[in-house]
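Bit of a strange request maybe. I'm writing a small parser for structure token strings and I need a real example to test against, not something I typed by hand. Could someone generate the tokens for this chain?
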Amino acid sequence: FQHYYITNNLSSMSGELPPCLEDQLETCDISDVEKYFELDSCKKWCEENNFKNVALQFPDHLLAHSTKVYNALTTTTTQLHILADTNYGSCCVDEVAAQRLSTQAIIHFGHSCNSRVLSLPTLFIFGKEPVEVDSLVECYKQTYTAQDHVLVVFDPVYYHASSRFNQDLLRCYPNICVRKYCREQNTSNSGDDSTEDMSGDGEYSVFYVGTESLALTNCILNNGSRKVWSYDPTSKECRLESRSVNKMLIKRFSNIEKIKSCKIIGILIGTLGIKSFREVIDRMKQVIKAADKKFYIVSIGKPNPPKLANFAEIGAFVMVGCPENSLLDCKEFYQPIVTPYELEIACVDRPWEIDYISDCSTLLDSNYIDIPSPDTNPDNINDKAIEKFRSLDIAVNYLNDRTWSGLQQRLGEDEPAVLKQGQFGIAGFYEDEPEGDTRLKN
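Reply from user aminoacidic:
Good idea to test on real output. This should exercise your parser:
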């Protein structure tokens, strides 16, 4: 299924998912649902903003608890919908699915990339995964001195421990800066952007609190010129992550070299909920045109090797998505998949910077290519439309020349097949085979 919806018409459910769905989910063991999902904050947020139709978005591993949250938040004045199996990454807000239900707002549960949402008011409930703050503080003291400038980045699911962590260390370690996350967007109480700026503090290190994930990979790449230490709350171990950055960058750089020899590039849409994704797509078009290459826009939801293998004429893809979903491991794919930043390096000679740029929206402020302003002249618009139709005709002819164009339905062109009895028995001997067959009959 694409989306699993629960509305007030189904409020009499027992609070459990269907067995066919529950067996497929790797559930998260949560003893106190009300505390983990901050249900009081959710109720207060809906009441203060007078929301009457709200969507609840859950990642797969939390979906088994969705009906408990639904039943706890259900009121006589608010209609709720549960969104599951998002079109793209679960860390992004699925605003398209919410708009299909005409919802006024979204409550996003679980880990989030915290990207800027297009328009719908959004409340982020990261969850409260267990973490021993005393062990975390002790590990920090063993790693840094009081004079070190450190940016502390919590995985969103451990962000609830940041206040106590900051209180325990700030007195003796005054140079700590904890990255903040924006809990609300597109409401009157919305905060500013989540990223803390330490550029004025000179040299600084990064201390990441969380398990191994795409968020950690993104943090390491974005801080290539700094030492990155990570603390795993599950194992209570601290390690230096900067040693692995070179290996990752070598893999990424090899994909850049492959892009240079490609004639056709696919712009892979990896999100529809980030605020500036349309502008980034337009910029990618200009970048590809500047390199005298062709492009196709491809929207297939969550990418996997079988889906992308259908586009054999496309030599490589550029993923336009959130910072976490853009960094795909291309090991299993037939074509390389790069980020918008890597595409600009390959096509318009953008310099490779020490600190990797995974947030594609920040590329819009750079001027490595000249993007023309929209043309409002009617004559020029007509000429561009004719040129567009000509390019479309060339693309159709290219597809028609392929030896394989996919399965055809041929509705009404063929006579329906007649069902008949097939062979019966075991592979060693079927009952309708000749008696003289020398094969074993057991």
